[in-house]
Description:
Blueprint: E1 2-6, H1 11-22, E2 26-31, H2 39-48, E3 53-56, H3 62-72, E4 76-79, H4 86-91, H5 93-113, E5 118-124, H6 147-165, E6 170-176, E7 178-180, H7 199-207, E8 214-217, E9 229-230, E10 232-234, H8 235-252, E11 254-260, E12 266-267, H9 268-279, E13 285-288, E14 297-298, H10 303-309, H11 317-330
Parallel strand pairs: 1-2, 1-4, 2-3, 4-5, 5-6, 6-11, 7-10, 8-13, 9-14
Antiparallel strand pairs: 9-12
Protein name: UDP-glucose 4-epimerase
Keywords: Carbohydrate metabolism, Isomerase, NAD
Catalytic activity: UDP-alpha-D-glucose = UDP-alpha-D-galactose
Amino acid sequence: MKIMVTGGAGYIGSHTVLELLKAGHEVVVMDNLSNSSEESLNRVAELAGKKAEFHKVDLLDAPGMKELFEQTRPEAVIHFAGLKAVGESAEKPLWYYKTNVAGTLNLLDAMEAVDCKTIVFSSSATVYGEPEEMPLTEKINMDAQSCYGRTKEHIEDMLVDLAASDSSWNIALLRYFNPVGAHESGRIGEDPSGIPNNLVPFIAQVAVGRREYLNVFGNDYPTVDGTGVRDYIHVVDLADGHLKALDFVAKNGGLRTWNLGTGNGYSVLEVLHAFEKACGKELPYKIVDRRPGDVAVSYADPSSALADLGWSAQRDIDTMVADHWNWQKNNPNGYEG
Ligand code: UD1
């Protein structure tokens, strides 16, 4: 299939492009490189033995995107492009709504104009907010607690309305839990700009000497050791879930929503200790106040993805952190080095 991947130079995008190329798909990447590097795609090409076609186009450039779709005529889209920092979204809500929501609207217009009606959308478990029940099933109502999360909710709503209006659309909404790790080669991985917001990239920078210590955000949650519990999922398992979801909706039509997580939760300190084992050194940390907006525990019920797609995460927490470390130690400054 010919597949357009928006945000394909980014962290999850580049890993997915690699799996798509390996599976024999033709891939066109559209990325504005605002938070990613084209070097990731050079390395994907080296690993896959073939290249994805690359176009530097912004989601907010509606005419540019229309032209790109007319020129490339993809059969399906995997849509990763967007802004993703929770804290920043509270400071710049209009920028987040414009980029994520209006940008997706531009994308859907460009798709419709060339009768490309199959899309896999990068949603997030953050849409669940702070529900009482655990594990999180797809049936729980969305109630995102941040501006970033609400942009994901709005896009999901838009896609639900679109599918209801026109049954020729094929749509997969994928709610990711916490993506970590890197391709086993250590050639591609997560390269956050500035200070990492997320736990594992932060720990990796402590391990490589770029940061002094980890701030652990609270140790008074009702969890195994008082620190927050999350469902970490290996980025290659996540990428694989996209291929299976695309295949399913392309064949069966309609709109479907799946959680992509492992179903297991690990605390901040458990992840830290797993990373220490992987890198062979003790990593300093300090307990600090809770981060506003954090929930105590979040993990998936991934049984729908298993039942419908035959997908389940294959890589355990030790593999996740070992692969993350392998990437970080070989690329201490990310793609720049
Ligand atoms: C965060 C976002 C979520 C987004 C996801 C993308 C928030 C509130 N949520 O999820 O919307 O979809 O990233 O991957 O930002 N932690 C530390 N020290 C750190 C960083 C994190 O102790 O320096 C803790 C957190 O308190 C949490 C856990 O580690 O318990 C995981 O944090 P993080 O990696 O930021 O992911 P989420 O908060 O789950």
